[in-house]
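ARCHIVE CARD
Drawer: 12
Card no.: 0347
Subject: one protein chain, sequence and derived structure
Cross-reference: see card 0346
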Amino acid sequence: MLTKLLFVSCVVNLVVSQRMIRRLSNEKSTRNNVDSSSKNEVLSNVLLSTPELVRKYGYPVEEHTVQTEDGYLLTHFRIPHGRTNSTTRGRRPIILQHGLLGASDLWILMGREKSLGLILADAGFDVWLTNIRGNRHSHKHVRLSTNSAQFWNFSWHEMGVYDMPATIDHILATTGQKRLYYVGHSMGTTMFFVMTSMRPEYNDKLRLGIALAPVAFLWKPSHQLLQATIPARRQIARMLTSAGIWELFPYNKRFANLTGNMCRVGAPTHELCVLAYYIAYGDDSQQLNKTLLPVYVAHLLAGGSTKTVIHYSQIIESGKFQQFDYGPIKNKAYYGQPSAPDYDLKKITTPVSLHYGESDLVLNPEGVKYLSKQLPNVAAISQDLPRKFNHIDLVLANEGRPLVFDRILKLTEIY
């Protein structure tokens, strides 16, 4: 989500502080306690893409291209079965949808035993690791160039209205199943709420929606950097538009390699990366695997549109879950009214499970509770996670399996 932008900012600002680097370099280093083979294993994952990581861990992987109604070409990766059972017949499909500026690799970064994507494959699911328009895997359109403003004229609204419906139709046609499960993290949940409210016929194609760090009503986020920048959102948006900056943080292999090496255990800047991670995502929840931090940061930025971030800043400022606000005159042309319409969450009939951490700096627990009251069919709401569980812990927590993933598996036994 927006925390990814904040994390990059934190890393840059901390690393340029030479005083902090000298101080940390003089402190007792942990580099001698880290096995060299373990270091090499971690660093070898820094530059691997989703299918390369899947194959490395011993799983089959397929690449699927899906064309949306408005011409975007999405690349998704399918893990049709686990390591020990090659049967695909009768497996229930499940979508894992990443968040803002991310990509499908999010779900497999922790390896065989701790990554949700691989856990689900071994548990008997047909796993689909999906990618939104504009990220490193979905950078194409049938006629538009990525150098044009028109290509980047989208936010999570279009992802929910076009990307996910096309993806679901493709998966059901490929598997022969009638319904599937949906797991979204952060923006992945926003897309789900948009799709099921704007295109309610897709409720019938879903067994269960699982929302990890659900993003709809972003009331008064406690993140200090967000609090400082949101009041200036209109000026920032105008500045980016004037400068022709339509894409934010596209994936860059050199940058991924650089940050991966900066954040490895034993590097003089490792603790700076850890500190930046906590500043961006939340206090030390004791759930961060510091050894894997280089892999996390290298895969953190996969690109996205500026408009997507602007749309989030809009709903933070307004406190409403609504479509993109173009201003009174353009809104009249787009929507037939001077204000941006709210999404009608009462149209979401799919059972929805909500999971969030109390130390999430982006989400306000009151906003999640309000969301739960707007949804007609709440299957579960997790309120007993560790107190310091933060925004990214829902996917990358060291104890994610017993605290979150096992709950997901239990819910799929019911729905």
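Annotation on reverse: The mean pLDDT is 89. The chain is about 40% helix and 15% strand.
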